Amino acid sequence: MEIRETPISDVYEIYPKIFKDPRGYFLESYREDLFEAHGMNTKWVQDNQSYSTAGIVRGLHFQTGHHAQAKLVRVISGKVLDVCVDLRKNSPTFGKAHTVILDESLQNMLYVPTGFAHGFAVWEDAVFTYKCSNLYHKESEGGIIWNDKQLNIDWGVDDPLLSEKDQNWPDLKKFHEISRGGL
Question: EC annotation (predicted)?
């Protein structure tokens, strides 16, 4: 398993070794010792899975306070552009986004620590799965509008299909004012 640092501290791209033979393939999708060696000392308490068709954008979501979540995300099938945005108070990379293509052929993953908004754009119909470090708590849910001009994220999807709530989140500037500087 190869764990790569990104330009945003504490965010990691993970590329498992895939062992293929005529029967199919095998890979390790998580190894506690390797993750801990890179400072990802996360206790996972919930696994989620979604299916989305091409052209859907989900996000940018987060949970606040004691319900904040770190996530380990990947696709089982399909291809997505995965996005995380640093919302940590006093972070030198506050408001910066990191993107990576998660692709079933690579089975690559992204580790998103607490203090980040997260979302993805579906490029090919996808089964998306993620581990969470905290249970879902509706009252602690928040978000940033997906097409925030300040973030300037190229989602690679024309005219995306969005949930109603994902169309109504505040932009980063408004979030910064409401939250008094971040998560």
Answer: 5.1.3.13
Can you tell me the distance from the alpha carbon of 118 to that of 83, in angstroms, rounded to the nearest whole number? 6
Would 28 be classed as within a structural domain?
Answer: no
In a domain, 6, yes or no: no
| 37 part of a folded domain | no
* Span 160-179, pLDDT tens digits: 999 999 999 999 999 999 89
CATH of the domain at 59: 2.60.120.10
Q: Which residues form the domain of 76?
A: 42-179
| From 12, 98, 111, 130, active-site residue | 130
Active-site residue (options: 12, 61, 98, 176): 61
22-33 confidence digits (pLDDT tens): 999 999 999 999
Clarify whether 61 is annotated catalytic: yes
Q: Catalytic: 130?
A: yes
Residue 103 confidence (pLDDT): 98
Threshold 0.90, pTM exceeds: yes
Kindly state the tokens that stand for 149. 């001009």
